Amino acid sequence: MSKLPGWLGRLGAELTELGERLEERRAAAEAEADRDADAEPPVAAAAAADHPAATADHVPPPPAYAPSVAARPDPVAAIPWGMRVAAEAGWRLLVLAGTLWVLMRVISAVQLVVLAFVAALLVTAMLQPTVARLRRYGLPRGLATAVTAILGFVIMGLVGWFVVWQVMDNLDTLSDKVRDGIDELKRWLLDSPFHVTEQQINDVAKNLSDTIGTNTEEITSAGLQGVTVMVEVLTGILLAMFSTLFLLYDGKRIWHWVLKLVPAQARPGVAGAGPRAWRTLTAYVRGTVLVAMIDAIFIGLGIWFLDVPMAVPLAVFIFLFAFIPLVGAVVSGALAVVVALVTEGVFTALMVLVVVLAVQQIEGHVLQPFILGRAVRVHPLAVVLSVAAGGMVAGIGGAVVAVPLVAVTNTVVGYLRAFGQEAALRHAPQPRGATAIGSAPTSTPSPAPAPPPAGEGDGEEKPPAQ
After folding, report:
1. Which domain of life is it from (predicted)?
2. What is the largest CA-CA distance in the chain?
C-alpha cells in the first residue's frame, strides 16, 4: 500500500508528458498544412472544391496569374445625375397630370353644378358689399341678405326682359331692313368688278334653300336639343340663385368648414390666401361690371346716333359679352358692325367699327389698368389661352370663368410662395456676429386672420390687395 501513491504520481507525469508531445505534433502538422496550401496547384484546388468541408476554415486567395475582374457598379450610380433628376420630375409630373385629368373628368360629369356654383360665387362677389353696407345700417343678416338678393335678381330679370322686349319689338323692322340690305348687297355684287352674275346669285340662294329643306330632321333635332339646353339653363339658374343666397347669408361658416378640411400644417397658409383670393375675385367682378357698363353706354350711344336699329339690345349684348375678355369685345363689336352693314349700308358700318375700336382702345389702355388695378392684372397671352381652354372645356360658361380663375390662382400662388419663404426664414438658424446685419430677412406678407370669403356683413369691406 505504501508504493501506491508513488506509482500514481509516475503515471500522472507520464500522461502529462504524452499530452504535451501530442500538442507539439498537432501544431507542427497545422504549420505544414498551411505551407502546402500556399503552394497548392489548380488541380489540388479543384480537388479541394469537391470537399468543401476540408476548406471551410480557410479560403485560399486566387493565384497571381488569374485575370482581374472589375466589380460591377451600383445601377443607380451608373445613371447620369441629370437623367435621374429628369426621371424624378417626370413621374411626379405624370402623377399631377393624372390627377388633373381625373379632376377634369369629374368636373365634366357635374359641369352644370360646377358652373352654377361658380356663377353664384361671381354674383356673390358683386352683391356681398351691399349686404355688408346694410349690416352697418343696422339690418339683421337675414333681412339684409334677402333685400340684396331680391333686388339683385329683380334687376337681372328686368335686364333680360328688356333685351327680349326690344328684340321682339324691333324684329319686324330689322327683318325689313335686312331684306333691303340683302337686295342692296345683291345690286352691289352685280355692279362690282368681280363679274358676279344674277344667275350665280340665284343659284346660291337656291342651294341654300335646298340645304335647309333637305336638313329638316337635323334642324328639328337641333330644336329639340335647344329645348334641352333651355331646361339645363333654367336648372343652372335656380342652383345659382340658391347658392347665392346661402353664400351671402352663411359664407363665414362655410369658409370655416372648408378650412377644417385642410391639413393642420397647411391651414395657416390657406387661411391667409383665402381672403386675398376673395378680394381679388370681388375686385375683378366689380371692375369688369363697371368697364362693361362704360363700354355698353358709349358704344350704344354711338350706335344710336348713327341710327342703327336695336341700339339698346346691342348695347346690352355688348355689356354681357364684356365678361369674356378680348374675345367677347370682338364678338359683340362684330355683331354691331354686321347689323349696321345689313341695315344702313357700308358707310354706317365703317362708322360703327370706328366707334367700337375707339371705345375698346380706351378700355384696354385706360379703364382696365385704372379700375382693375394690379391685383387682377393678367397678361394678354394668359387671357387668350385661358379663355380658349375654358371655352373648349365648358363652352361659354368656361370662357366666362376662366380669367377670374386665373387671376385668383395667381394671387393664391403668390401669397403661398411668400408665406413659405417667411416660414423658412422663421425656422432658419439666426446668424451671429457681423453677418447678422447683412443677412437679416426682409419683411414678407404674414398670414392674416381668416375673414369669410362670402357673406360676411360685419365690418367694413377691405380694399383689394395691391
Report:
1. Bacteria
2. 164
| 300: in domain | yes
Task: Provide the 10 A C-beta neighbour count for residue 353.
Answer: 16
Rounded distance, CA 101 to CA 115, Å? 18
- Asked if residue 390 belongs to a domain, the reply is yes
Which of 275, 269, 276 has the alpha carbon at shortest distance from 255? 275
- Contact (CB, 8 A) for 211 and 226: no
* Grid cell at residue 177: 331692313
The three cell numbers locating residue 393: 372645356
Structural domain span for residue 300:
170-232+266-425
pLDDT digits (tens, 9 = 90+) for 36-55: 655 555 544 454 455 544 44
How many other CB atoms are there within 10 angstroms of residue 301's CB atom?
14
Please compute, for residue 205, the number of CA atoms within 13 A of its CA located in the half-sphere on the CB side.
9
392-407: b (≥16 Cβ within 10 Å) or e = eebeebbbbbbbbebb
Q: Give the Cα-Cα-Cα angle 125, 128, 132 (nearest 5 degrees).
A: 150
CB 40 within 8 A of CB 48: yes
pTM score > 0.90 for this model? no
Secondary structure (DSSP) of 45-90 = HHHHHH-GGGGSS--PPPPTTSPP-PPPPPHHHHS-HHHHHHHHHH
Residue 293 to residues 128, 275, 320, Cα–Cα distance (Å):
19, 27, 9
Residues 6+ apart with CB under 8 A from 97: none
Q: Residue type at 60?
A: P
- Count of the separate structural domains present in the chain: 1
Terminus-to-terminus CA distance in the chain, angstroms?
122
451: which DSSP letter?
-
| Residues near 305 by beta carbon (within 8 Å), at least 6 away in sequence | none
User: 438 lies in a domain?
Assistant: no
**pLDDT, position 57:** 53
**pLDDT tens-digit map of 254-283:** 888 888 888 888 888 888 888 888 888 888
How is residue 262 annotated by DSSP? S
Q: Angle 171-191/198-214 helices, nearest 10 degrees? A: 140
In sign, the C-alpha dihedral spanning 137, 142, 145, 151 is: negative
Show Cβ contacts of residue 292 under 8 Å, excluding neighbours closer than 6 positions.
318, 319, 320, 322, 323
pLDDT of residue 93: 93
The DSSP letter of residue 263 is: -
Q: How many residues does this entry show for the chain?
A: 466
